[in-house]
Write a structure and sequence with these properties.
The chain is mainly alpha-helical. Helix 10 packs antiparallel against helix 11 and helix 15 runs antiparallel to helix 17.
């Protein structure tokens, strides 16, 4: 079926986008934990924070098998550079390059060169080299390369179906990672942050917001002290916040409507249902039901949606 084959080819760049976005979100999580470990009173020994990073990425068991201690240096090296960790930043950028190579014909020269150059720069990065540089500089480099690819994609790629699938991959991954970060870090901070009685509390919540580029946005929207309720509201329901769950589902739902085929009805249904939950949702109802259970359900649903998109657009369908 030529039509189905064509759709599959257009849909393949989704994984290049997902892996690049995953690398960016991973360093955002490492960055916020690293910043918190430098706050007064932590002495860099916030094992709970580094354990949370592993929980967010579902890497706790894999890390335990390495036998490494739960220290900042060891966790950062494992999550950023470990070749045996399929979710490491190093492996994500390698996979992004491999997927870009597989669909080279659908990408512009600038997109390929950006993805390939990113891989070539990180390919020879070692734990020893990472220790010799400023960690913040490394985190910013990964984020910059992701920003650069998004900008090059938007500015050079024909806005056809392949472009839409690149965007789809970005927002699927972003929604998943925002929910994971909020779920784990929100509850690790909450017991210490009731009433925001100390400057440390303010900096911890500020670091969480900065990890999703939302600190200035929060101050603009609320013009108030940082409170847990409003942080959750901004990152879940505010459709104007680019990394909020609502904003991500706005994009996903719209894109699926534009690339709809006879095989995509289930993915469209799931996206529409999840989008409606956020579009018409209220924070009071979410908190009444329990933020953690609500986010857990969201993660199950966003991953089920990703699976459906894979089945509908990437798996060969009989003519």
């Amino acid at each position: 079926d030529k039509l189905v084959t064509g759709v599959q080819t257009c849909a393949l760049p989704i994984w290049m986008a997902r892996y690049t976005e995953r690398a960016e979100n991973t360093v955002r999580m490492l960055d916020v934990c690293y910043r918190m470990s430098l706050l007064p009173g932590t002495n860099g020994g916030d094992t709970e924070g580094w354990s949370a990073i592993l929980d967010i990425s579902e890497l706790s068991e894999a890390y335990a098998r390495t036998g490494r201690p739960l220290t900042a240096r060891d966790v950062i090296e494992f999550v950023a550079l470990d070749r045996d960790n399929p979710s490491s930043v190093w492996n994500c950028l390698r996979a992004a390059r491999e997927n870009a190579h597989a669909v080279r014909g659908t990408l512009t020269a600038e997109m390929w060169e950006t993805t390939n150059a990113t891989w070539l720069e990180i390919r020879d990065m070692t734990p020893q080299k990472l220790q010799g540089m400023d960690l913040g500089e490394f985190f910013e480099w990964v984020k910059f390369r992701s920003h650069l690819l998004r900008g090059v994609t938007f500015g050079t790629m024909l806005h056809d179906e392949a472009f839409k699938f690149v965007r789809l991959g970005t927002f699927l991954e972003r929604a998943d990672n925002t929910a994971r970060l909020l779920d784990v870090k929100y509850h690790s901070l909450l017991p210490k942050a009731e009433g925001l009685t100390s400057s440390t509390d303010f900096y911890q919540w500020g670091a969480l917001l900065r990890s999703v580029s939302a600190f200035e946005t929060y101050r603009h929207v609320y013009r108030d002290v940082i409170t847990p309720y409003k942080v959750a509201e901004l990152l879940i329901l505010n459709a104007d916040m680019p990394r909020s769950l609502h904003a991500c589902l706005d994009e996903i739902n719209g894109i699926l409507g534009e690339v709809a085929s006879v095989h995509s009805a289930e993915a469209a249904r799931q996206a529409g249902e999840l989008h409606a939950t956020l579009h018409y949702g209220r924070m009071d109802d979410i908190f009444e039901a329990g933020l953690h259970p609500w986010l857990e359900r969201f993660l199950v649903r966003i991953n089920r949606l990703g699976d459906s998109i894979g089945q509908n657009f990437l798996v060969p369908v009989a003519a």
